[in-house]
Design a protein that fits this description.
This protein has four domains: about 130 residues, no CATH class; about 120 residues, no CATH class; about 170 residues, no CATH class; about 30 residues. About 50% of the residues lie in helices and about 10% in strands. The chain has 17 helices and twelve strands. Strand 9 and strand 10 form a beta hairpin. The protein is elongated, with a radius of gyration of 30 Å. Belongs to the GerABKA family. One of its GO terms (cellular component) is membrane.
C-alpha cells in the first residue's frame, strides 16, 4: 500500500499528528481495509470489527465504536435484518450493495462511502460502516446512541410567563426546538464542522429573505478562518469570530431559550447552534439587547417599559455608584447635606484606609463571595453567599476595618448588577467598576466623568457584524427607538416591521 504522507489543506495538516491521515479509496480487500482502520484507531479499546455473512455466504465487515452506537438499534435494526436474509447469489458486489441499501433503507438510512478518510470521520461520529468483500464501496448506517439530558427550563433565563423548554447539549434536538417554532421552508439550517481534531458540528440558522445575505456570508467566512484543534463550547466561537475580541462588552447574544432564538431569526438575525453546548449565539446585536428579555414581549407593554428603564437605571448604578461614593467622600463632600457628611465622617472615623482602598477591598470581597457561591454545590453556594456576606460585613465593621456605608454601597451595587439580563454585560460592568473607582479616588468626579466618556467613545466604535453597537441612537434611526428605550405595543411593532419589509421589497425591485 502506498499511503499518502499528507493531506491538502490546513485541517489535514493538523491531522498529521494523528494516525488517521488516510486519503485513499476503499480497497476491495476486507483485510486491507481492516488493517488500515486498526492502524488509524490504534490503542482504541472501543473499536469493534465484526465479520458477518449476509444473503448466505457473502462476507461483510462491520466497523464501529462501541461507546457511540445504540446497542438496541444495532441488534434489531441492522444485525438481525442482515443475517436473517435468505441466501442469494449476486453477479457482482454492486448488486449486493444495492440490495443491502434496499433492505435496510426504512430502518437505518444507509449511505454509500468510497473514501477511507470519510469512513473514519463517520465512525468517530457514531455511525456503523459495513464493508463488502470485493467492493470498493461501503455502506454507512447512522445508529449512534443519542446521549443527552432531559429538556428543562434554563436556570439562568427563568421566566414567569413563557415557554419552559431550553436548549441542551444535543445539536439535533436543539435544531428541532427551533424548527417547531418557525414552520417554514425559508428557515435554513446549514451544517458546518469546525476544529481540526474535534470536528465539532454546528448549524448556521437563518431565515431566507429576512437575514441579510452579507451577514450570513460574513459568518461563514469567519467560521472558515478558524484554526483550532478543538471547539468544545460556544464560548470558543464567540471569541474567535467576534468583531472586537478585546472588548469587555458582548457583541453577540448568548441564550439557552429557543423562543428567543426564534424571535431573533424572525427579526432577521443569524444564530449558531453548537453540538455539545446548550448556549446558542445570535448575531448581530446592539448594546440595548443586553437590557431586554424575551419575557418583555409576553407581558403588558407598559410594565415591560418600566422594567427596561429600571434595568437602565440600575445598570448605571452598578457601574458608577461605588466610584461616585468615593469621589464625593474624598473630594466633594460639600455636595451632600451637612448632616449626611457628619454621619459618613463618624462612620469612617476609625477606618484606617482611604475611601478608595476601602471600596476596592469590599468590591473584591463581594466578587469572591459571588464566585464561591457559583462554584460550590447549589444549596451550599447560596448559604455561603448570603451568610458569608452578612458575617464578614458585620465583623469587618465591628473591627473598624471598613465602614457601614460602604457595606450599603457595595450591596446596592451587587443587587443592581443582578438586574442586567445579559450575563456578558453584567461581567463587563463588574470589570469596568474597578478602574472607575481608581479614577474617582485619584481625580474625583472629574475622573468619573472622564471614565464614563471613555466608555461611551469605546461603545460608539464597536460594531457587531457591521451593525453599529449603539444604533439606533447613533447613528440615529427614529423608527428603531420604538423597541429600544420603550417596549411599544405589538400593533406598532408589527406595523413598523411591515413597513421595513415593504421598503426592502422596493429596494430589491
Amino acid at each position: 500500500m502506498n499511503r499518502k504522507k499528507g493531506l491538502p489543506g490546513q485541517i489535514d495538516q493538523k491531522l498529521k499528528e494523528f494516525e488517521y491521515t488516510i486519503d485513499e479509496d476503499i480497497s476491495d480487500n476486507l483485510a486491507v481495509n481492516e488493517l488500515e482502520l486498526r492502524q488509524a484507531f490504534a490503542n482504541c479499546s472501543d473499536l469493534i470489527v465484526r465479520k458477518i455473512h449476509v444473503f448466505g455466504s457473502n462476507l461483510c465487515m462491520a466497523v464501529y465504536l462501541d461507546v457511540l452506537v445504540d446497542d438496541t438499534m444495532w441488534d434489531d435494526g441492522l444485525l438481525r435484518p442482515l443475517v436473517n436474509q435468505e441466501a442469494v447469489d449476486f453477479d457482482n458486489s454492486a448488486q449486493l450493495i444495492e440490495q443491502l441499501r434496499y433492505k435496510l433503507a426504512s430502518a437505518v438510512k444507509p449511505s454509500v462511502v468510497e473514501n477511507l478518510k470519510e469512513t473514519i470521520q463517520r465512525i468517530v461520529r457514531g455511525e456503523v460502516v459495513l464493508f463488502v468483500e470485493a467492493s470498493k464501496q461501503a455502506l454507512s448506517f447512522c445508529i449512534k446512541d443519542q446521549l443527552h439530558r432531559q429538556l428543562d427550563e434554563p436556570s439562568t433565563e427563568a421566566v414567569i410567563r413563557g415557554p419552559r423548554l431550553g436548549f441542551i447539549e444535543n445539536l439535533h434536538i436543539n435544531m428541532a426546538l427551533v424548527r417547531q417554532r418557525i414552520r417554514t421552508p425559508l428557515l435554513k439550517m446549514e451544517k458546518i464542522s469546525v476544529g481540526a481534531v474535534s470536528q465539532t458540528d454546528m448549524t448556521l440558522v437563518y431565515i431566507e429573505n429576512k437575514a441579510p445575505q452579507t451577514v450570513v456570508e460574513e459568518v461563514k467566512q469567519r467560521l472558515a478562518k478558524i484554526d483550532m484543534d478543538s471547539i468544545l463550547e460556544s464560548g470558543y466561537i464567540e471569541e474567535l469570530i467576534s468583531d472586537h475580541p478585546y472588548t469587555p462588552f458582548p457583541v453577540m447574544q448568548t441564550t439557552q431559550r429557543p423562543d428567543l432564538v426564534a424571535a431573533s431569526l424572525i427579526e432577521g438575525k443569524v444564530a449558531l447552534l453548537i453540538d455539545g453546548s446548550p448556549i446558542a449565539l445570535v448575531m448581530p446585536i446592539t448594546f440595548w439587547y443586553a437590557f431586554q428579555t424575551v419575557e418583555d414581549y409576553y407581558m403588558n407593554f407598559i410594565f415591560a417599559t418600566l422594567l427596561r428603564w429600571l434595568r437602565f437605571l440600575f445598570a448605571f448604578l452598578a457601574l458608577a455608584l461605588p466610584s461616585i461614593y468615593v469621589a464625593i467622600t474624598t473630594f466633594h463632600s460639600e455636595m451632600i447635606p451637612t448632616s449626611l457628611t457628619l454621619s459618613l465622617a463618624a462612620a469612617r472615623e476609625v477606618v484606617p484606609f482611604p475611601a478608595m482602598v476601602e471600596t476596592l477591598i469590599m468590591e473584591v470581597t463581594f466578587e469572591a463571595l459571588r464566585e464561591a457561591g457559583v462554584r460550590l454545590p447549589r444549596p451550599v453556594g447560596q448559604t455561603i453567599s448570603i451568610v458569608g456576606a452578612l458575617v464578614i460585613g458585620q465583623a469587618a465593621v465591628q473591627a473598624g476595618i471598613i465602614s457601614a456605608p460602604i457595606i450599603i454601597i457595595v450591596s446596592l451595587t451587587g443587587i443592581a448588577s443582578f438586574l442586567i439580563p445579559h450575563p456578558g454585560m453584567s461581567q463587563a460592568v463588574s470589570i469596568l467598576r474597578f478602574p472607575m473607582v481608581l479614577c474617582a479616588g485619584t481625580f474625583g468626579l472629574y475622573g468619573v466623568s472622564a471614565a464614563m466618556l471613555a466608555i461611551l467613545i469605546h461603545l460608539t466604535n464597536l460594531s457587531s457584524f457591521g451593525v453599529p453597537y449603539l444604533s439606533p441612537l447613533t447613528p440615529l434611526g427614529p423608527s428603531g427607538l420604538w423597541d429600544v428605550l420603550i417596549r411599544a405595543p405589538w400593533k406598532i411593532i408589527h406595523k413598523r416591521q411591515h413597513q421595513i419589509r415593504q421598503k426592502m421589497e422596493l429596494e430589491k425591485k
